């Protein structure tokens, strides 16, 4: 190649570089995505890109022109890189802006909350009863629901032929084992252990072969109470249960004891509380009576002491049994016991 042609080659190179630069910048300007921008970078500046192709023609350029052409190649690369970087920054910013817009949080939308349950009226009533007795120094004791006939009946002075045993429509597992019909067997179990004095309550499920209706269920709950010490009298029973009624139903609550019969206590009574709705005048709530029956109680029968191995000459005591559902229905003014067992959260949440 003669010299003048070689000089021409430098000029052609320069023109080609300018053309590349213009095309690159035009393409970058039109680009609207980061991916396309990257394609452009590869097409112009990559290993097999246009600029590299141009460099391959350097050997055709006159040696004295090469530094000049080399400089133009560098300038072209720099110019394209600069514009590419700027476009990249701008597109990235735009993309982020769009993303932020599309991910806007509407703070006025109702939130998705975890469903928290609610305490059952029975649980609320039991917690209150427990609080009252724990406050008086009582222990809370558990007992088995599947119970020996012995503890459920015999140890409580209810012999095999006693009518109470028929009355209590018992679920028998076999002739020695029953589903307990009352929480009273826990009394016998605690007394038998012989640790005195005793001051305890025992809440739990009890079972009777009853049909379901507004006031009956084959499975319900009682809270048993037992106090045994030297010198315990009926006055202690009255004072304790009067205080219990006041704390449960309000400070103006009065109590009334009616003589009754339970095989395991002597004397025995049922306790009524003055109606906390009408204060005793008589209303729909207390069926015009002014009083509401609330529990059974009495002085522990000497024969029960004997059966459970406690010296009846040295010790006396009182016992009582409260129906938990009865308290819950009264306290929360629920008029059908079946509602307590349906577990409808809309119902339960009202208390
Ligand atoms: N267990 C009795 C019942 O189911 C309730 C009861 C009455 C318990 C008198 C007692 C009591 O401890 O002294 O009807």
UniProtKB/TrEMBL annotation:
Mg(2+) binds at residue 266. It comes from the Bacteria. It comes from Lachnospira eligens (strain ATCC 27750 / DSM 3376 / VPI C15-48 / C15-B4) (Eubacterium eligens). Residues 77-104 form a coiled coil. The keyword Coiled coil applies. The keyword Aminoacyl-tRNA synthetase applies. Its EC number is 6.1.1.20. GO terms for biological process: phenylalanyl-tRNA aminoacylation. The gene is pheS. PROSITE patterns: AA_TRNA_LIGASE_II. One of its GO terms (molecular function) is transferase activity. It catalyses: tRNA(Phe) + L-phenylalanine + ATP = L-phenylalanyl-tRNA(Phe) + AMP + diphosphate + H(+). It is found in: Cytoplasm. Pfam families: Phe_tRNA-synt_N, tRNA-synt_2d. SUPFAM superfamilies: Class II aaRS and biotin synthetases, tRNA-binding arm. One of its GO terms (cellular component) is cytoplasm. Residues 129-342 form the Aminoacyl-transfer RNA synthetases class-II family profile domain. This is Phenylalanine--tRNA ligase alpha subunit. Keywords: Aminoacyl-tRNA synthetase, ATP-binding, Coiled coil, Cytoplasm, Ligase, Magnesium, Metal-binding, Nucleotide-binding, Protein biosynthesis. It is an enzyme of class 6 (ligase). Tetramer of two alpha and two beta subunits. Its cofactor is Mg(2+). Binds 2 magnesium ions per tetramer. Belongs to the class-II aminoacyl-tRNA synthetase family. Phe-tRNA synthetase alpha subunit type 1 subfamily.
């Amino acid at each position: 190649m003669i010299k003048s042609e070689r000089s021409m080659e430098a000029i052609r190179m320069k023109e080609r570089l300018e053309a590349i630069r213009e095309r690159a910048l035009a393409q970058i300007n039109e680009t609207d995505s980061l991916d396309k921008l990257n394609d452009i970078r590869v097409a112009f500046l990559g290993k097999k890109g246009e600029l590299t192709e141009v460099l391959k023609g350097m050997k055709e350029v006159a040696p004295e022109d090469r530094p000049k052409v080399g400089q133009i190649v560098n300038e072209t690369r720099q110019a394209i890189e600069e514009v590419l970087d700027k476009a990249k920054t701008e597109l990235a910013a735009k993309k982020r802006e769009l993303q932020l817009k599309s991910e806007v949080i509407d703070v006025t939308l109702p939130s998705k909350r975890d469903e928290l349950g609610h305490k059952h009226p029975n649980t609320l009533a039991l917690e209150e009863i427990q609080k009252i007795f724990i406050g008086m120094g009582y222990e809370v004791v558990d007992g088995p629901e599947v119970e020996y006939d012995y503890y459920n009946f015999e140890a409580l002075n209810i012999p095999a032929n006693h009518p109470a045993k028929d009355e209590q429509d018992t679920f028998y597992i076999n002739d020695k084992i029953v589903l307990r019909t009352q929480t009273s067997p826990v009394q016998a179990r605690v007394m038998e252990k012989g640790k005195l004095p005793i001051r305890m309550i025992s809440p739990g499920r009890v079972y009777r072969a009853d049909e379901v209706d507004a006031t009956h269920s084959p499975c319900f709950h009682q809270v048993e109470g037992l106090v045994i010490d030297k010198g315990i009298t009926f006055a202690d029973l009255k004072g304790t249960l009067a205080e219990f009624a006041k704390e449960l139903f309000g400070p103006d609550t009065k109590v009334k004891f009616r003589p009754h019969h339970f095989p395991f206590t002597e004397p025995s009574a049922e306790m009524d509380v003055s109606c906390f709705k009408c204060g005793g005048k008589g209303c729909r709530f207390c069926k015009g009576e002014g009083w509401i029956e609330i529990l059974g109680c009495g002085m522990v029968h000497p024969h029960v002491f004997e059966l459970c191995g406690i010296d009846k000459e040295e010790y006396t005591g009182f016992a009582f049994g409260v129906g938990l559902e009865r308290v819950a229905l009264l306290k929360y003014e629920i008029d059908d016991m079946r509602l307590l067992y349906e577990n409808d959260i809309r119902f339960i949440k009202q208390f």
